[in-house]
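Two records follow; treat each independently.
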Amino acid sequence: SDVYKRQDEEYTDEKCEKLIGSAVLDYYKHNKEILKSLVMKQRVRRIHTLGEEDGLFLITRDNAVIYEPISNAPLSDSIEFPLSAVKGILPMRYMFKHKALEIFLYGQSDSIYIDFENESVRKTVLNYLQSHCKNLDSHFADIDYHCRMWIERKISNFDYLLFVNRVGSRSFNDLSQYPVFPWVLSEYYTNCKFKANHSHCLI
């Protein structure tokens, strides 16, 4: 089985599974009221530029989403938000597997990137969120809409490229699939050959 190196100790898959299970039980012991109100609970990994961390993804009956890292997680930040705050949800590909979601919130520049155990679990969570998040932006992942807005110059080249990266499963949270931005010309009438150091031709 796979062996993980953490702080000069060896952790087999079996030991990691026990550690995560222990963290789940410990969390529930101190949060019995949340346990009673849960409609969904999943062990997940939160993906961030600082690394990965194991945690719990919880949805309560009062329409709150809670992400709780397990003990000694590197980021160690709990996240809680109402379903009404969700602006958009995108299925993502992480490490070549289609089992992650990226959640975008109103008024927040940072998104939340969650990797689930498998594609089936992700589909279940995605269906639940899509049916219970009442304030989703209907154009958030609409390619035709954003293309039309760009053609009509209602959004900038930068915003359009951000959108293309986003729907292409690229994220600022994932260093293995970080957004890419090509050179964009600002004028097309110069007869001379294009050179990268001709800054007046670039945006």
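The next record belongs to a different protein.
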Amino acid sequence: MPEILRDMESAPSETAGFLASLNQFISTWGKLIIRFIDGNVENALVVVTELEKFCAETAKQFYNSFHLFLQFLYKTEALKDEMVIAWAESRRESDNEHAKHYLALCKQFIDWLQANEEEEEEEEDEEEEEEEETE
């Protein structure tokens, strides 16, 4: 994974240029990342952890843009709700200052995912109750 991220090292740090570079990165490497994750939460955590390291150590200009990486991987369906939530839960337990920083950057996104997940669970419960009543 670190070799893949080298493509992003020279990306401009201003928002428009960064997003264009991120789009190019996903166009180039997205399918490989999706194949690596393959619906597996542990593999997703490996990818996100490498992104954390990349933003903190290699390309420090992206330190405050980590949440954009995470959201972009979510929008391209490389990461699923439960994967992002699992990452957030693992970071809540961490004493690492970078982890806390990234968690704070992603708070609004994570809150939104958790609210969606709770809403879906409620809808499923209602559907099950309706099915039981019709039987």
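Discussion point: The mean pLDDT is 82. How would you locate this feature using only the token line?
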